[in-house]
Amino acid sequence: MAGEEKSRSKKEQMKGKAKEAAGRAVGNERLTAEGKADQMKGDARQAKEKTKDVFKH
């Protein structure tokens, strides 16, 4: 389960980076903001999983 969550967080971060880059390329501020939000969600999910790992060991 933890591995799935970690990979999901990485995918979310990569998707966010792609959205942000696409938004900047076409000048779409909304798409850029959505990309940043996706990255933050991925970062938060990853931090949660790291915290779980610390308490697990």
Number of strands: 0
Distance between the termini: 16 Å
Number of helices: 2
Note the main sheet: none
Query: Beta-strand percentage?
Result: under 5%
- Helix % is over 70%
Determine the structural class based on helices, strands and strand pairing: mainly alpha
N-to-C order of helices and strands: HH
- What does the overall shape look like? elongated
Task: Briefly say what this structure is.
By secondary structure, the chain is mostly helical. It has helices spanning 2-26, 29-56.
Q: What attributes characterize this protein structure?
A:
57 residues; mainly alpha; 2 helices; 0% strand
Provide an overview of this structure.
- It is elongated and about 45 Å long.
- The two termini are 16 Å apart.
- With 57 residues, the chain is an all-alpha fold.
- The model has no long low-confidence stretch (mean pLDDT 91).
- It is 93% helix and 0% strand.
- It is built from two helices and no strands.
- The chain has helices at residues 2-26, 29-56.
- Helix 1 (2-26) packs antiparallel against helix 2 (29-56).
